[in-house]
Amino acid sequence: MRAKSASVIAQTCRSILPVVAAALLFFGPLLFPVAEVYLLVFGMACFYAALAMAWNILALSGLYSLGHGAFFGLGAYSAIIFQQQLAFPVYAAVLAGGLVGALYGLLWGVVLKNLRGAYFALATLAALEIPRVVADNWESLTSGSMGIVGISRLPALELGLISLPVGESMRGQYYFLLGWMVLTAVVHRQALKSRWGWALQAIRDNEVAAEVLGVNVYGCRLLALGVSALLTGIAGGLYGHLMGLIEPAMVFSLQMAAYPLVLSFFGGRFQVLGPMVGALVLYPLDQLVLQPWLPQGHAAVYGLVIIFTIFFFPRGITAWLQQRHTS
Question: Which CATH topology does 10-326 take?
């Protein structure tokens, strides 16, 4: 009886905790007098959670990219160029920047289709340098290494009768990024739980066996790469407006690929909420605790996190917590 009661309690906690966390994320800024710095930190945590889930969609197929900064940077530069030079509305320009990132991703899918494992990862790292060098040297279009400054804030988002002042208040920006994270989480869930998701799992487990069973290996992976690149490119376009400036070293960086990788591994790559949990735990911890204590060395903590996760939580903290509740 005690074991059964403990199991019921564990199951209840497992069901309630996500609801409580979601309620805090949504109602916290409304119910409590939160300083703007916390809205900024948790808003950016939502942003990086979405970026981690976008990266993880490709990783679910068994391919690990070190070059997602290419999609991020292309999305950032394309969105700003479409808006400033071609007079696109801001959100249309951001979407167009995402499509540019997706096109580059599909090009990856064609050129790198026969590469696997470390060879694919190294090729993506090399492919990151191509758009970075172009952006660094095409000064008439991108302003070169000086970057583009004076980028406007995101305008208010009209949702029927509701107007969300995204660029006018930190609270509006927070809720916008929270919504972007939720939207990306829906796509991420499809990559795990739909028929497409089961196909990706089969490919990841045994590519040859999946192909024998009728799975379109190339098509499924190409779709995963395209969706991952699209979401990453859109994130890049949003980032330019959030920061107010972009430069090649800032958006075409290895950090923009390594950071989502760390968050995904830490939270749990094969869990629906894994990358999200990783971002919502690690980013605020870094910004609010580690950076004030270790202003020069806080970034090294991410390397330690990867080592710690590999040794003690190889499936991520989300899977570990679930296992603890069920045992």
Answer: ABC transporter involved in vitamin B12 uptake, BtuC (1.10.3470)
